[in-house]
Amino acid sequence: MTAMTLYAWFPGTAGEALPFYQEVFGGELELHTYEEFGRTDGPADAIAHGILAGPVSLYGTDAGPEDRPVDMQGISVAALGAADPDTLTRWFDALADGGTVIDPLQPRAWGASDGQVVDRFGLRWLIGFEHDQA
């Protein structure tokens, strides 16, 4: 890892969530089960460690019995200017599928566009771009 990266503890849904994020953002995905890591503190087929490496990097796991699963309150993953406007719009729409749009992706008075969405796995995203990027 060369930069700070979000690591999410999912409530038994990491095996669905991480491939979903790979579909949205692209990149390379590795999934490792509890059994593969020799862990006995969770179901053998649960995800002990997953890595998405690409334009958006993300780590994830299935929460163990002592872990609290992701509950994003007062925080979001910011993808501001992380790609060209068309790509960011596509990401927003894909994350909104099955999720909840908090604030639609739209032009703002200060000359940028942004919006917020909570995806179907509970991650809250702030996505936006400056209009001079278009």
Structure overview:
The chain has a 4-stranded mixed sheet, with helices on one face. With 134 residues, the protein is of the alpha/beta class. It has helices at 14-25, 85-96; strands at 6-10, 28-33, 47-53, 58-62, 77-80, 100-107, 112-118, 124-130. The longest helix has 12 residues, at 14-25. The protein folds into 2 domains: 6-62, Signal recognition particle alu RNA binding heterodimer, srp9/1; 77-133, 2,3-Dihydroxybiphenyl 1,2-Dioxygenase, domain 1.
Which strand-content bin applies to the residues?
Answer: 35-45%
The general outline is elongated
Q: In CATH terms, what is the architecture of the largest domain?
A: 2-Layer Sandwich
Please report the distance between the alpha carbons of the first and last residues.
30 Å
Pfam families: Glyoxalase
Domain Glyoxalase/fosfomycin resistance/dioxygenase: 14-125
Organism: Agrococcus carbonis
Protein name: PhnB protein
Question: What are its keywords?
Answer:
2 domains, 18% helix, four-stranded mixed beta sheet, 37% strand, Signal recognition particle alu RNA binding heterodimer, srp9/1, 2,3-Dihydroxybiphenyl 1,2-Dioxygenase, domain 1, 8 strands, 134 residues, alpha/beta, elongated
